[in-house]
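sorry for the late reply, my laptop died twice this morning and i had to redo everyting from scratch. anyway the thing you sent over, i finally got around to it. pasting the sequence first so we're on the same page, its 277 residues, then the predicted structure underneath. double check i copied it right bc i was rushing
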Amino acid sequence: MAQVDLHLHTTASDGRLTPTQLIDLVARKGLRVVAVTDHDSTEGLEEAFRAASAYPDLEVIPGIELSTDVPRNEIHILGYFIDRHDQRLQQTLVRFREGREGRAKRMVEKLAAMGVYVDWERVKEIANGAAIGRPHIAQAMVEKGYIQKPQDAFNGYIGRNDPAYAEREKLVPAEAIKFIQEAGGVAVLAHPAELPDLEATARELKAAGLVGMEVYYAFYTPEKISELLDIANRCGLLPCGGSDYHALGTPGELQPGDMGPPLDVVAKLKGLVKERR
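ok and here's the structure:
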């Protein structure tokens, strides 16, 4: 059981637990440091901090997860210790969330053209005011019986290269890193194992300001963790990670604290934040 989990989602994006429910859960599990990293949103952070005030031994890091665009793929960048009150940050995130909604509506229309009929109003109900993401569409598909579990939607329906996929406004990775830095934070490469030419990409992003990459992530095997740790060390990046918990209830879903980096990584991240400020 890890003491640190730096990749957690709430109902502010595509998680199923409210920020309060998530904080109560990680506190019960005895975690010492967690990061709330919703997609394109910091809307859950205020509630998370309020909930954490009941647990003096728990530290909550303000975070975010941004999707960025590269040819034929996408790269996710995590931001830690961001200033959620930064005006430019919030204005940009509002635009991104609006883009997510338009993209989701186009995907629902594309699904209908494939004979997969998902009600748009139901997708919005599932999102419940949060930044609409593909998992909300996937959940609606499960409810209608088109697929058995949400992950199935990303294989043949709404995965990046699937017929019902639609694009939205995104930053490129270097822009996302700069965006996070300008909001007072530090940037970390999320779930990198599937990226082609990972070491070359990591070195390129390190030059743009990246400080870490996820090594201790979700379902990574000990062998994969060892391989990624070697790459992180060679590139001078901090080995971060977490469970990427969404509370979806899918078979085998990792729980907060099932995967995460050593506690000293948090101190090193804080040191980098202090240097940059």
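Residues 155 and 219 are 18 Å apart (CA to CA).
thats about all i looked at so far, will dig more tmrw
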